[in-house]
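Entry 14. Ran structure prediction on the chain below.
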Amino acid sequence: MSETHNDPLARVMRRYLRRSGIIHLPVVYSTEEPVVFTQSVNDNVLGSFCSVTGTGGLFLAARVIRDLVDTDKDGWEKK
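Output, structure tokens:
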């Protein structure tokens, strides 16, 4: 989480986590700059592309599985 940028929500979350003593938290994020739309409020604009959010979920699931596999039955990290 500490490496995220270009995201106002992530900035708020980093600040909250830092105050709570949480420094390292693995996250999936995009390095893209936010896009500012010039369309009126009445125009229909999709907030996100559904396959992008699904792909993010798959990345998170892969990380959890990898972390579970890299530990022994007592939860200690394998060497």
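The helical segments are 8-19, 50-69. Will compare against last week's run tomorrow.
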